[in-house]
Amino acid sequence: MKARWATLAAKFAAMQPRERISVAVAAVFVIGMGGYTVWIDPAQQRAGALQKQVAKHKAELQNLQAQVAAMRAQLKDPDEPNREELAAVQAETAGVEQSLHGFDNVLVP
């Protein structure tokens, strides 16, 4: 490996300054693209997938909230008519009992 590096260094030193700059720029570009391909691009793809998933979940949440609101609007007490009728009967019974108590005082001294 050391011998290979020394050979490459000698070839690089033998190049013209313009060629050195071109080789250095190409090396930096290759290293940069490798880093982009290995670290940045997969992270961006994951972030994009997660953003799509979040948007999908938000849409589902809004749909469910609309369904809950519709169900709450339809929610009524099924026994409400019976309760109203019971209250009316109890009120009538209370009135009749009061009338009877009034007759008790009149009929029985």
What order do the helices and strands come in, and which of them pair?
Elements: H1 2-14, H2 17-74, H3 80-107
Considering the chains and any ligands shown, give keywords for the structure:
109 residues, mainly alpha, 3 helices, rod-shaped
Description of the molecule:
The chain is mainly α and 109 residues long. Helices cover 91% and strands 0% of the residues. The chain contains three helices and no strands. The chain has helices at residues 2-14, 17-74, 80-107. The protein is rod-shaped and about 135 Å long. The mean pLDDT is 89.
Sheet having the most strands = none
Amount of beta strand? under 5%
Helix content: over 70%
Give me the count of strands: 0
Low-confidence stretches: none
Based on helices, strands and strand pairing, what is the structural class?
mainly alpha
Radius of gyration: 44 Å
How many separate helices? 3
In round numbers, the mean pLDDT is 89
